[in-house]
Amino acid sequence: MGRGRAKAKQIKVARKLKYYSPDTDLGALQKELGGEHGSDSGADPYDESDYSDYADKYADVDDEPEESEQR
User: Which domain, by its residues, includes 18?
Assistant: First the structure.
């Protein structure tokens, strides 16, 4: 026994998290998510040129079969 208080507190915390909605600063959120407007409007975030050094460095790793595949 003795679980009643712990369970009641968990329910209280869960309800508070579910129904409490703090004021959101939408301007700060836009700055954080979008950055500055116009700075890199046409840039591709998945540009592979940034990773070409890694591709060359680890190219031989993918060519070797794992031990479990050799059997």
Answer: 2-60
